[in-house]
Amino acid sequence: MIKSKSRSLEEILSKIYAIWFREFRVFLRERSRLIASTFTPLLWLFVVGSGFGSAAAHTNIDYEIFIFPGIVCMSVIFSSVFYGSYIIWDRKFDFLKSVMVAPVSRGTIFTGKTCGGMTNSLVQASILLVIGVIIGIHFTLLSLIQTVVVVLLLSFALTSLGLALGSYMQSLEGFQMIVSFVVFPLFFLSSALFPLHNLPYWLSILTSLDPATYAVDALRNAMLGIGSKSLGLDISILAIFTVGLGAFGVYSFGRMKAV
Q1: In whole angstroms, what is the distance from residue 99 CA to residue 109 CA?
Q2: Model pTM?
Q3: pLDDT tens-place string over residues 93-115
Q4: Any residues with CB less than 8 A from the CB of 210 and at least 6 apart, and which?
Q5: Where are the domains of the chain?
Q6: What is the rounded distance in angstroms from the CA atom of residue 244 to the CA atom of residue 160?
Q7: What are the DSSP calls for 33-69, one per residue?
Q8: How many helices (H) and strands (E) does the chain have?
């Protein structure tokens, strides 16, 4: 009995690995995508950060340093949610149909694809973390582990959201239009560019409904030692969002038509 369960678990993990490996190889072949997705956060960090930083001082630290955790989350938001477009491409090239007819559960397929999206986000975030060290952010082993945990949680949540949205869409144009209404509110309401204190009441409500808010605050705690909430509370709330969006993604993926 125990051996059969162990064998079944190994089979599931091997299938997840196969799907993840395929997604990761696709990512490695698209080097232009990696460059473009890294350039945009850097543009915000150095151009927008320098411009806003010269006009106002939000904290007693350099404004570029202050917004850096938000820029890391920005990279994760955009790469994770837009990852759902690969569902539409897979459907167009009949790859999705061939996977769906294989003896693999849709939950396993979804998990493999989500892990692929998480890996992509982690690679892009790692590049930004190197930039962070260059501009003056000091990491300890503990803060680095905390940063990776937050990035993975946020990436899993938003990749699940992107895959769920992609499962309902038939055209890439429609997906991009819908996603634009998702990623920009997620970013601008996350407190990536401003502190959470002294916000208007209505804006405080909106920021509290944004999972990226807790990721940004958690990263500020881990990287800079500042935050409006404790690191443990931020990660706990982010984990709840991750479980909820993961469940929504599995449900949506289960209802998806392969053609």
Answers
A1: 8
A2: 0.86
A3: 666 666 666 667 778 888 888 98
A4: 185, 186, 189, 190
A5: 16-255
A6: 10
A7: HHHHHHHHHHHIIIIIHHHHHHH---SSS-HHHHHHH
A8: 12, 0
